[in-house]
Amino acid sequence: RMAYGIGRLWVAQGRNYYGGDLINSDPSRGVESILHFTENDYLNEGGAFAVPWQTGEITGFSFASKQDTVSGEGSLMVFTNKGVFEFDAPVDRTTWAALRQPLQRFSLLNFGATSHESIVPVNGDLFYRSQDGIRSFYFARRDFGGWGNTPISREVEAHIKNDASRLLKFASAANFDNRMLMTIEPQYSERGCYFNRMAVLDFDLISGMRGKIPPAWDGIWEPDFQILRVLTIECKKGPRCIIIGSNADDGLGVYELL
């Protein structure tokens, strides 16, 4: 589990996570400075940060979007199975020891992510796979004070309610063509975990000039191969959606979703 943002590389190890050196902080290394962790020598100036033991180990990272900033990057969101934490620190590590407010703050309790690859940024929100379904960080925070804090996947619950919890750590998702694609129905084989289908959420309904309405589930998509990973990559002509899968002959393949 690893993420890059605000000039640093962040890496998780169990309940702890570490921030690498600031990019270009060492003139002799240049961009490669981010591959070093020499600034973690003194705990009062950084060191390792940790999430509470009762929330479990770290399952994923993502940087939330933030308006009116140079890079558009907000705080580092740290996910566990049972919670989400917001880490907000200045770029300059030498000022960390002098701060009075906490660098890490609790953001959401009980509704964390099962895997790093399932966390998908969509505009200013984060969608992810949780133990009880598919959730949105924005909607979960909005409904946190109510009695009915539920996932947003009720319409497709029949297809995901029997997913094996121990296999959800292999779930992946992608944001492509105004849709979110989330792998569901995990199965285990001798070669590892694979997924039979994808649950697809359509954001096209909120893209018009008229009144905004919530996104709608676009159904369950089932390819003719086993899904190992779905992801998006950036190319010169724009984003492309790639699916890594295995076919009936047990051979690996790379497919593109058009």
Task: Give the helices and strands, then pairings.
Elements: E1 2-5, E2 8-13, E3 16-19, E4 48-50, E5 58-65, E6 73-80, E7 83-87, E8 104-109, E9 120-122, E10 125-130, E11 133-136, H1 137-142, H2 157-160, E12 173-176, E13 179-189, E14 192-202, E15 216-221, E16 226-235, E17 238-246, E18 252-257
Antiparallel strand pairs: 1-2, 2-3, 3-4, 5-6, 6-7, 7-8, 9-10, 10-11, 12-13, 13-14, 14-15, 16-17, 17-18
Structural class: mainly beta
Shape: globular
- The total of beta strands comes to 18
Helix content: under 10%
| Spatial strand arrangement across the major sheet | 1-2-3-4
Q: What's the helix count? A: 2
- N/C terminus separation: 28 Å
Give the oligomeric state of the chains in this entry, treating copies of one chain as homo and distinct chains as hetero.
single chain
Name the helix and strand elements from N-terminus to C-terminus, one letter apiece.
EEEEEEEEEEEHHEEEEEEE
Mean pLDDT: 83
Query: C-alpha Rg, in Å?
Result: 19 Å
Largest sheet, strands/sense/barrel: 4 strands, antiparallel
What does this structure look like?
This protein is mainly beta and 258 residues long. Helix content is 4%, strand content 44%. It has helices at residues 137-142, 157-160; strands spanning 2-5, 8-13, 16-19, 48-50, 58-65, 73-80, 83-87, 104-109, 120-122, 125-130, 133-136, 173-176, 179-189, 192-202, 216-221, 226-235, 238-246, 252-257.
